[in-house]
């Protein structure tokens, strides 16, 4: 909304009027000249808000009306993050160790 706000007193009064409106959850002053009032909330009656601002501040215009859609963040909250599932198998059994000995090495040489 574009509202005629020339001084800090007018800005404070506009914020007070917007805060008193039913359904308003967030209010911000924007624009280069700080003459735009951004109001967000659930089921805000902009016509009623504009009339109240016009009574007190003499000039108020609705610039844009947007419906803010909820993002898909709610789906992400429902899906809990789980780390990848790794399967650890036990190591393969080692074959039995067989000791192989050369029969010639264990006996002494008969020539000597």
From TrEMBL:
PROSITE patterns attached to this UniProt entry: HMA_2 (PS50846)
Coiled coil: none
Domain spans labelled HMA: 1-61
Single GO molecular function: metal ion binding
InterPro entries: HIPP46, HMA_dom
PANTHER family referenced in this protein's UniProt entry, alphabetically: OS04G0464100 PROTEIN
Protein name (record): HMA domain-containing protein
Organism: Gossypium darwinii (Darwin's cotton)
